[in-house]
Design goal:
Pfam families: Beta-lactamase (PF00144). It is an enzyme of class 3 (hydrolase). Helix 1 packs antiparallel against helix 12, helix 2 packs parallel to helix 5 and helix 4 crosses helix 5. The longest helix is centred in the first third of the chain and has 14 residues. Strands 1, 2, 3, 4, 10, 11 and 12 form a 7-stranded antiparallel beta sheet that branches. This protein has a 3-stranded antiparallel beta sheet with strand order 5-7-6. Strands 8-9 form a two-stranded antiparallel sheet. The chain is 31% helix and 13% strand.
Length: 406
């Protein structure tokens, strides 16, 4: 392990989490101005076998994937292969069906397309054919007029953006990440884990299902498959923050209602029906572009280091992509959300100490973020999933400790 003395506060917080029994296994990494200043790991990768968490132990990072997928598309936009402001139907003609002719690529990246739910139940194994899933979405009618509201597309985001990528290049997001980003930069980061990576991937431990909702400084989210804070999908369609007790009541209703928008958005595909859930090799190798990232903390922090340094996208492209496009009430999350072009921006669901930070968090509490103004790339991955109601304060504390150390 390595921790620059300037960031000793970070190491203290990391070690305290283990001493207090909050962690099972975890890793945290920080790059500043291109230098790896924090590289910490500890605990066990598999509680059943006692396998220790090693320097190269990767973890499944759920929705942290979305920022990587957005970056692939933005690379194509830089090359003139995709116009973010143009209708999706220009590259995917079938998508124009059922009132979607005017839906733009930007609408997909900012969760405004009105397609957060795959309406027909589909077995998890069928999601191997991502183009077929995208075709199902192309045949659906939006749940709201695209461009008039936003709602977190927890899983459909990846099949929608991924199909635009496939139509333009003939390749999957995972293939392009390997060829254009992870491979050239030497990053331990995969959208779809190779067979030799799966055995050393950390085994996730699901959070206990809590009995009551509460709001904490990390926000709030209801119980259910996929719910977590910060940044993972939570409630049903809401209209804003309101009083905390009203918000909690609405979240509770959504959590208990199988037909709520939240449960419909997060329940198809139903990962939990596979043996081991997200630990199943089917999920780890699937490479879903919304929730398929397998990465070490160092690999994900290195991704943001390279973004902040201009090694993946031109600085002007990144500035435009991280400009907040939507901010406020979320049709799928009750808490307000804020997004640039695929990147989360600071909000109640992406609690950051700096307004210049961008990135994405994932179910259970994993976090990846960059901050070009401070030259930072930061990532946290773990295998003890956060309680969906109280949020994962572990990652937030670590990020805060980094900024306090600057």
């Amino acid at each position: 392990m390595h921790c620059d003395p300037r960031f000793s506060r970070v190491r203290e917080v990391f070690e305290r989490h283990f001493a207090d029994g909050e962690e099972l296994g975890a890793a945290f990494a920080v790059y500043q101005d291109g230098e790896l200043v924090v590289d910490l790991w500890d605990g066990v990768a598999d509680r059943h076998t006692g396998r220790p968490w090693e320097r190269d132990t990767p973890a499944f990072a759920y929705s942290c994937t979305k920022a990587v997928t957005a970056t692939v598309l933005l690379q194509l936009a830089e090359r003139g292969l995709v116009d973010v402001s143009a209708p999706v139907a220009e590259v995917w003609p079938e998508f124009a069906a059922r009132g979607k002719a005017a839906v733009t690529v930007e609408h997909l990246l900012t969760h405004q397309s009105g397609l957060p739910v795959l309406e027909e139940p589909v077995p998890v194994e069928a999601f191997e054919d991502q183009a077929a899933i995208a075709a199902r979405l192309a045949g659906q009618e939006p749940l709201w007029e695209p461009g008039t509201a936003h709602g977190y597309h927890a899983l459909t985001y990846g099949f929608l953006v991924g199909e635009v990528v496939r139509r333009v290049t003939g390749k999957s997001v995972g293939e392009l990440v390997a060829a254009e980003i992870a491979g050239p930069l030497g990053l331990e980061l995969w959208v779809g884990a190779p067979d030799d990576v799966i055995p050393r991937t950390a085994r996730l431990k699901a959070a206990e299902r809590p009995q009551a909702l509460k709001v904490t400084e990390a926000g709030a989210a209801p119980t259910g498959e996929g719910a977590a804070t910060p940044g993972a999908a939570g409630g049903a369609g809401g209209t804003g923050q309101g009083r905390p007790e009203d918000l909690v009541a609405a979240m509770t209703r959504a959590a208990l209602d199988p037909q709520s928008l939240m449960n419909r958005a997060l329940g198809n595909p139903a990962m939990h029906r596979l043996q081991g859930g997200a630990n199943n090799p089917v999920i780890l190798r699937a490479g879903w572009p919304a929730a398929g990232l397998v990465t070490t903390a160092r690999g994900l922090a290195g991704f943001y280091r390279s973004l902040a340094a201009g090694d993946i996208l031109r600085p002007e492209t990144l500035r435009e992509a991280t400009r907040t496009r939507v901010n406020g009430p979320d049709r799928v999350l009750l808490l307000d959300t804020a997004f640039g072009l695929g990147y989360m921006r600071p909000s109640l669901t992406f609690l950051m100490p700096s307004g210049s930070a961008f990135g994405h968090s994932g179910m259970g509490g994993s976090i990846g973020l960059g901050d070009p103004e401070r030259g930072l790339g930061i990532a946290y991955v773990m295998n003890r999933m956060a309680n969906a109601l109280s949020g994962n304060l572990r990652g937030i504390r670590l990020v805060e400790a980094v900024y306090q150390s600057l």
